[in-house]
Amino acid sequence: MTQVSEPRCVFTEGSITLPAGYREQTVNILIAPSGPSLNISRDQLRPDEDFATYLARQREVLQKGLRKYQALDEQPAVLGDGLFHGITLLSRYHPQKGQTLHQRQAVFPVKASNVLIFTLASSQTLTEQDEAFFSACLSSYQHP
Question: What is the pTM of this model?
């Protein structure tokens, strides 16, 4: 007889049993001594929306929620070896007076209602080297 295992929340240091009624929505933050940070987060589509509707809603959230938010570029994106297709967004905003945050985000629908979001953020304008790093991270993705 096969025993069904309980769902687990897995992180670098180990894992825990996912308590009943909970869903895993962790954020992974990768930092370096110098250079931009890379955040990996998860989100869920609402029951009544598809990926395009989700993106429109999120653009509105960013526009309303981030001070002086500016969308600068949007392009198609691929995660891993063609595993998932989504979009990448380049933007900047001013969290505080005199401060500018530059970010490149890549958003991918990975299941019917789950979205995976990669965000490269820096207080400096993103360089070609930063963009190459971000692209390499997306290309290195492997599905479990």
Answer: 0.89
Alpha helices (H) in the chain, listed in sequence order? 51-65, 128-139
| Mean pLDDT in order along the chain per 10 residues (144 residues) | 73 88 88 94 94 95 92 96 96 92 97 94 96 97 87
Give CA separation, 61 vs 10, 54, 69, 107, in Å: 29, 10, 10, 15
Long-range contacts of 49-53 (CB under 8 A, 24+ apart): 51/86, 51/109, 51/115
CATH architecture for the domain at 26-139:
3-Layer(aba) Sandwich (3.40)
Structure tokens at 136: 């390499």
Single out the residue of 60, 63, 68, 138 nearest to residue 104, CA to CA.
Answer: 138
Q: State residue 87's pLDDT score.
A: 97
3 state SS for 26-65? CEEEECCCCCCEEEEEEEECCCCCCHHHHHHHHHHHHHHH
Paired strand residues for 5 = none
pLDDT at position 2: 56
CB 66 within 8 A of CB 93: yes
Amino acid at 53: T
